[in-house]
Amino acid sequence: MLTLSIIVLAIGTLLLILALRGRVVERGAFCHRCRFDLCGLDRQEPSLRCPECGRDLSGHKSTRATLRTRRPVLLACGAVLLFIGLASVGVSATNNTARVLAVMPDRVVLTLHSAGMDEAFTEITTNRLARFPPMSDRTWSRCVQVTVAV
What we know:
Layout lengths: L1 H20 L1 E9 L31 E7 L2 H22 L3 H7 L2 H9 L3 H11 L8 H13 L1
Antiparallel strand pairs: 1-2
Helix pairs in contact: 1-2, 3-5, 4-5, 4-6
């Protein structure tokens, strides 16, 4: 469980980095401040200024070679994966897995069990069978099917 949590955390971090860096939209010469396209300007002129914002373009890093745009969908996916990864690493590292599984719905615990989580099977066999109100017949039959398949 801890290994899977660390993998999800790493993927979430990678997606966030890629989303914030963005993808290249256009190549050329652009003002670093206002992103104005400087194509067609005489770059050899000593007192060259950006026609849009007036920034001096003769200094170091006053222009950029590419324009990038951020990826909001990738940013959202990365943030969700990062949150899930951090939460699951915290739960695994503090040995609170049984407490977390105890408050989860039956379907989620069965799904985690079918995904290979051993703690979920322990939760089903020890706590879910002897509780009040008992499991529904549908959940019970699914539990039996999952257990037999394993």
